[in-house]
């Protein structure tokens, strides 16, 4: 692993609609499903678990499916994830250890490849309606999942100052572009301008080396 600097850009491509300002305790498993009671070909990759929000593993190649499964254990390792560097905010080591073990168990020879990550940092005033944000986010996430390229969507809860972080990990950048053109996402972006005190978007390349022996998160370059 190489710890490289985190880059940032004010680019609103496929930004998580609610920017993580929902209460995960309130919406966890929205739809009533858990991974144990959905088809083995469908994967829960976000707090939303009704059918339109699930990832169809049969439409992915083996590497993409393995990574998506490994990302299901994604969790913050610091309470300050909203303001800390992305690379040090989550349990990446555990994720990639699981990915390496899974690939080995399936006899899959992992070759170096990269994925596209979007990080949205924000600050929300107390006056913003969380229920309105939830409705916008659900619609936008459903649109994003239509292309089956969103491997993981995670968001936290605002800290005492209203700061938060949300992130999407996509199969490739091309998958993220249609996610920013739907009516739900456009509505969410219009709301962003009104509902947030500030926001910042970071784009990264998640690189996983041969045999998952190394990995890196680096600034995205077009």
Question: What this model shows, in words?
Answer:
The protein is α+β, with helices and mostly antiparallel strands and 222 residues long. It has six helices and seven strands. The chain has helices at residues 24-27, 62-70, 92-105, 130-145, 173-176, 183-195; strands spanning 42-43, 55-56, 113-123, 150-155, 163-170, 198-208, 215-219. The strands form two sheets. Strands 4-5-3-6-7 form a five-stranded antiparallel sheet. A hairpin with a 7-residue loop joins strand 4 and strand 5. Helix 2 crosses helix 3 (92-105) and helix 4 runs antiparallel to helix 6 (183-195). It is globular, with a radius of gyration of 16 Å. Residues 2-32 have low confidence and may be disordered.
Characterize the largest beta sheet: strand count, sense, and whether it forms a barrel: 5 strands, antiparallel
Strand content: 15-25%
Strand order within the widest beta sheet: 4-5-3-6-7
Shape: globular
Order of helices and strands: HEEHHEHEEHHEE
Number of helices: 6
- Low-confidence segments, ≥5 residues, pLDDT <50? 2-32
Helix content class = 25-40%
Structural category is alpha+beta
- Strand element count: 7
């Amino acid at each position: 692993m190489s710890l490289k600097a985190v880059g940032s850009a004010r680019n609103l491509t496929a930004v998580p609609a609610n920017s993580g300002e929902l209460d995960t305790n309130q919406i966890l498993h929205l739809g009533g499903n858990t991974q144990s009671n959905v088809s083995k070909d469908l994967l829960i990759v976000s707090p939303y678990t009704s059918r339109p929000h699930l990832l169809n593993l049969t439409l992915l190649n083996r590497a993409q499916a393995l990574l998506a499964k490994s990302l299901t254990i994604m969790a913050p390792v610091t309470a300050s994830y909203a303001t800390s560097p992305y690379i040090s905010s989550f349990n990446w080591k555990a994720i990639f250890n699981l990915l390496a073990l899974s690939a080995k168990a399936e006899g899959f020879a992992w070759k170096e490849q990269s994925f596209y990550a979007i990080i949205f940092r924000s600050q929300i005033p107390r006056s913003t309606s969380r229920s309105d944000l939830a409705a916008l986010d659900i619609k936008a996430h459903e649109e994003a999942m239509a292309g089956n390229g969103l491997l993981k969507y995670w968001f936290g809860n605002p800290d005492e100052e209203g700061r938060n972080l949300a992130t999407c990990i996509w199969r490739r950048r091309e998958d993220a572009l249609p996610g920013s053109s739907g009516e739900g996402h456009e509505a969410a972006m219009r709301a962003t301008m009104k509902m947030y005190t500030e926001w910042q978007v970071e784009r990264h390349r998640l690189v996983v080396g041969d045999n998952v022996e190394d990995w890196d998160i680096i600034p995205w370059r077009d």
